Amino acid sequence: MLAEAAGCPLYVVHVMSDNAARLISDARRKGIPVIGEAVASALATDGRKYSHECWHHAAGHVMSPPLRPDPNVSLELMKCLGHGDLEVTGSDHCVFKTEQKAIGKDDFRKIPNGVNGVEDRMSVIWEKGVVSGILDPCKFVAVTSSNAAKIFNLYPRKGRIDVGSDADLVIWDAEATHTISAATHHQNVDFNVFEGLRCHGVPCTVLSGGRVVMEDGELRVTQGAGRFLPCAPFAAYVYDRIRPFTESHAVKPVMREPYTGPVSKTFHCEDDSGTIDGLKNGAANGGVDPAGDGPRARSPTRCGGRNMQESSFSLSGVQIDDKCQVRSCIRTKQPPGGASTALW
């Protein structure tokens, strides 16, 4: 994998299948720094919707990568979040209205790719993860908030309630229920991939920077109130994992005493005819002295055989058979393919 070859962290977005999650899990167990992200749509619905009789319904689920048709994939991905093999959940929010999706009504390839997720992500993960018993509330906070803040080096400014941290808070009612519907959501789209899903766990109040932006289901946002967050490189949460991996894969030098014995100025090789002085043999047969840059292959044996394991490559272009006379042409009566007869 790229992360193993480069020794660098790899962040894999849009993990949509259990096979992909399994590969990430196997890599992490080998110490390879790989981070996997699941998306809300893959945790609550599946690709069977692509076979729906209603074109509008089927097109509303078109996204990249696509949803998998196996209904068990959602459960497996949630288990990976619970085990820590996947660490983050995203929304992959990119919505298109029906008339925009209809651009591809006659050609599937032209359907704009994207589904909703940003508004319902936390409720969906609470319902599918915490209510089902796969996640505990602390793990829920980790996969929806604090892990992302640590990975992108925004922690403890984000992802933590503490003095000096940004006052970004969600007051959560774990007992309240809510049925997701396109008729009541706040997104500028007429379709919702979670349509009809009844969720336990609803945000009562949301604060951003200490200001109430949502309360009792009503938005109170001001356009343009957001601000850019610079992310410093080399987050400790990520790179502290690389140090043991790098150290374990580093080439370790062999400590030994230096050689102080005699060093020969000539070399010897042995072939069918017995021991031959390599220096004399090379000079006499078109070769080059070992100190040179020419071919360093032994000469052919008396029967014409050569050692095919030795290279005759030379940067100077010298070849072993340079001194052999080359004939301009060879006249052959019967070439290897058989005799040939002219038609005239």
From TrEMBL:
GO biological process: pyrimidine nucleobase catabolic process
InterPro entries: Amidohydro-rel (IPR006680), Metal-dep_hydrolase_composite (IPR011059), Metal_Hydrolase (IPR032466), Metallo-dep_Hydrolases_sf (IPR050378)
Listed GO CC annotations: cytosol
UniProt-recorded Gene Ontology molecular function terms: dihydropyrimidinase activity
Catalyzed reaction equations: 5,6-dihydrouracil + H2O = 3-(carbamoylamino)propanoate + H(+)
Annotated spans, Disordered: 280-308
Cofactors (names): Zn(2+)
A Pfam short name: Amidohydro_1
Segments forming domain Amidohydrolase-related: 83-212
EC number: 3.5.2.2
Record family assignment: Belongs to the metallo-dependent hydrolases superfamily. Hydantoinase/dihydropyrimidinase family.
Stated name of the protein: dihydropyrimidinase
Organism annotation: Paragonimus heterotremus
Source organism phylogeny: Eukaryota, Metazoa, Spiralia, Lophotrochozoa, Platyhelminthes
